[in-house]
Design a protein that fits this description.
The protein is an alpha/beta fold. The protein has twelve helices and ten strands.
Length: 336
């Protein structure tokens, strides 16, 4: 089986590569940049450069049985709604056309739990819960919904959609959700909204996507998440873990949205990253509990305990000098 992983140098992509290798499949790794990034160099992976915006995209996909698409447009901020949606949809449609032209049998598309609607009865949401239209919570939610909807309508080849929640673990070089871990470990007091966050070990996501790429009859859409936890409670536990002061009370929804919008405007003007991106605020404010039994029963998913995931992140972050040495022998043994 020949498998191409688009976005193989990304946070999720490198763990998909690891999981495919564990199944005995050596994938071809694709990234936009010309030189292999450190995560792929350290794995001695075979890397090619593939840009989703080139007209010759289909030529790069020829001969593959499966394409894993972990390179969907991920906006740096939420300020340019029209431009963000246009770019995401243009790249998605171009990829679908290229997959069809190249004769690829299956596309595994990595989406997001941002596309998962809350159930009407308050029960945890499962794969059947999809927004009927763009939810309008923010640019990130609407972008992910629009791109997933295009993939779900595709009928020229088999499509499989994986919806991971917020991923934690090693190799998070963009420092997404893990930025909250770093902030608490450094003794900062990160502003945060009041609400639920769904978390999953990125290795569990990689293993599930590898199964979706290789199994004979995968489910069409599957949610990947291991833990639903109140964000403020998580930060309090992290404060204990790192010997840091407890966090301030969470911001109400209106204040959190206003602060995130202001932070993104400043970050865009200065070329920096917002400490509290609007994407994260929207996910926390509008997220709900998730039912991931389908991943467990069909893919054999096993969700890593959160404490183990944090231990893995800590070890990697300390090697990268993103975190200081432990303050005490007990710092790496949290009660979560």
């Amino acid at each position: 089986m020949r498998i191409l992983v688009l976005g193989a140098s990304g946070f999720i992509g490198v763990h998909v590569v690891d999981a495919l290798r564990a199944l005995g499949v050596e994938p071809l790794c694709a990234q936009r940049s010309p030189a292999p990034r450190i995560a792929l160099r350290s794995r001695e992976a075979t890397v090619v450069r593939i840009d989703l915006d080139v007209p010759t995209l289909a030529e790069h996909l020829a001969g593959f049985d499966v394409v894993v698409h972990a390179a969907g447009h991920y906006p740096a901020h939420s300020l340019d709604r029209a431009g963000t949606l246009a770019r995401g949809l243009r790249q998605t449609r171009a990829l679908l056309d290229a997959v069809a032209t190249a004769g690829v049998a299956r596309l595994v598309y990595v989406s997001s739990t941002a596309t998962v609607a809350r159930s009407s009865d308050g029960a945890p949401s499962d794969e059947s819960h999809v927004f009927a239209e763009p939810p309008g919570f923010g640019v990130y939610h609407d972008l992910k919904w629009e791109m997933e909807a295009v993939v779900a309508r595709e009928r020229r080849f088999e499509t499989v959609i994986a919806c991971p929640s917020a991923c934690l673990g090693a190799e998070d070089r963009r420092i997404g959700t893990c930025a909250l871990l770093l902030a608490m470990a450094r003794g900062a007091d990160p502003l945060h909204p009041d609400g639920l966050v769904s978390l999953v070990d990125v290795r569990d996501v990689g293993a599930a996507i590898a199964r979706l790429a290789t199994m004979p009859e995968p489910p069409r859409r599957v949610l990947l998440s291991g833990h639903d936890i109140d964000l403020h409670a998580l930060l309090c536990a992290l404060a204990l873990r790192y010997g840091a002061p407890p966090p301030s009370a969470p911001l109400p929804a209106k204040a959190a949205l206003a602060w995130a919008d202001a932070a993104e405007t400043y970050a865009e003007a200065t070329g920096t990253r917002a400490p509290l991106p609007r994407e994260l605020v929207d996910l926390v404010l509008h997220g709900g509990p998730l039912d991931t039994r389908l991943a467990v029963t069909r893919l054999g998913a096993r969700w890593t305990p959160l404490a183990d995931t944090l231990d893995t992140f800590d070890r990697w972050a300390r090697r990268q000098r993103l975190l200081p040495p432990p303050r005490s022998p007990h710092e790496s043994q949290p009660d979560l």
